[in-house]
Amino acid sequence: MDERRSVSVSKYLSRHLRHQPERIGLTLDPGGWAAIDTLIAAAAAHGFRFTREELDHVVAANDKQRFVIEDGRIRAGQGHSVEVDLGLPPATPPPHLYHGTVARNLDAIRAEGLKPMSRHDVHLSADRETATRVGARRGRPLVLTVDAGAMHRDGHVFHVSANGVWLTKAVPPRYLCLPDAR
C-alpha cells in the first residue's frame, strides 16, 4: 500500500471512528467499537472502498497507533468527539507531561488552562519530542510543561491510552509552565 493511500484510509477511519460515525450509518457501541465487516460495508456503501488487508496495514503501520483491533472489532484509541467510554483505568502520571501548541493559543491557555475543546479529554505527551510533533501540525510548535505530579496529588484523574497518550479532563493554568512566545 502506498503512503498516500495509507494516509487516506487512516484519515477516513479517524473521521468515522472518532467524530462522525453516523455520517456513514455506523453505530459505535458504548466503548467506541464497531464491527470491522460493518465498517468496511458502510464505507463502501458511501463511496469509499478499502479492503481488510488495507485496514490491517493502516492499523499496524500508523506511527501514532491510533486504532485498536480486537475480536473482529475496531475502535479509535482516543480523541473522540462522540460520546464513548474507553474503559481506561485511572493511572498515576509521571511528574511532568507535555502539550504541543502554537503561539496564537497562549493567551487563552494562560487565562483558562488546557481544555478538551471538541474532544472529551486534554491530550498530553510523555515526552517533549512527541508534543513538538503534535504542536507542529498547527504551525511553529511551542511545548508546554504540565506539572502532572501536582495535579495528581491535588485529585485530578489521569488515564493513559494504549498508544501512550495521557488523558485528563482539563489542566488549570496553575499547573502549566508556559514558554515565551517571542
UniProtKB/TrEMBL annotation:
Root EC class: transferase
This enzyme's EC code(s): 2.7.1.-
Domain of life: Bacteria
Leader peptide range in chain numbering: none
GO molecular function terms noted in the UniProt entry: transferase activity
Alphabetical list of InterPro entries matching this protein: Ptrans_KptA/Tpt1 (IPR002745), RNA_2'-PTrans_C (IPR042081), RNA_2'-PTrans_KptA (IPR022928), RNA_2'-PTrans_N (IPR042080)
Alphabetized Pfam families for the sequence: PTS_2-RNA
Keyword Electron transport: no
Alphabetic keyword roster: NAD, Transferase
Protein role: Removes the 2'-phosphate from RNA via an intermediate in which the phosphate is ADP-ribosylated by NAD followed by a presumed transesterification to release the RNA and generate ADP-ribose 1''-2''-cyclic phosphate (APPR>P). May function as an ADP-ribosylase.
Similarity section: Belongs to the KptA/TPT1 family.
Listed name of the protein: Probable RNA 2'-phosphotransferase
Organism: Streptomyces pyxinicus
